[in-house]
């Protein structure tokens, strides 16, 4: 794990809880829905590939949503979401493995398990099509990528800078998310994707994560090379709990170049 930079207190607390969280029981085996196929279908239909996130709350959110997770996911798919991300971290994001099970049963698109996974046993918690591995917080990334694939997961390796990108590529990652949020300070800069995503092999699928809230942001990330976008707060709108999830998703999935 890269510990050169002191982490924000909220992130340090998340990691402390993650280290103590046990893994699952029996080894998970997944027949995964393909994200690359889903991205191709979205683009063929003229939609921007968006991974919409079911996120009850977060350390940076202004409130909490306690809506039914399956209903939220269905509304996102109705709005054109290519895939669904579900937080399973319980202590700081209000997530659960059960929420992910409900979502995956309710929709027919790929579902990403988003959590702070520190060791192999934590892979065996719940079936999902994709699984997030944060390069910064994993000691042996190559081994964990391999272990995830052995179970049938499509591992999404998250990076924030060029050094982490190189580590991800060396670990064999072909699905990489570039987080625009600096987890050391919890600050967001869309320029992060633009600077990190240069000179990436053509066979790597790139996902821009965090800070994407408008059609203009969508177009900016797509022009910088993002194959898909992961969007949470801009769709969930934690402030009111009364937002139209489908409309919020649609305004991003239809944000094609030149649209207003």
UniProtKB/TrEMBL annotation:
Pathway: Amino-acid biosynthesis; L-tryptophan biosynthesis; L-tryptophan from chorismate: step 4/5. One of its GO terms (molecular function) is indole-3-glycerol-phosphate synthase activity. HAMAP family: IGPS_A. The keyword Magnesium does not apply. Pfam families: IGPS. The gene is trpC. Residues 15-239 form the Indole-3-glycerol phosphate synthase domain. It comes from Natrarchaeobaculum sulfurireducens. GO terms for biological process: L-tryptophan biosynthetic process. This is Indole-3-glycerol phosphate synthase. Keywords: Amino-acid biosynthesis, Aromatic amino acid biosynthesis, Decarboxylase, Lyase, Tryptophan biosynthesis. The keyword Secreted does not apply.
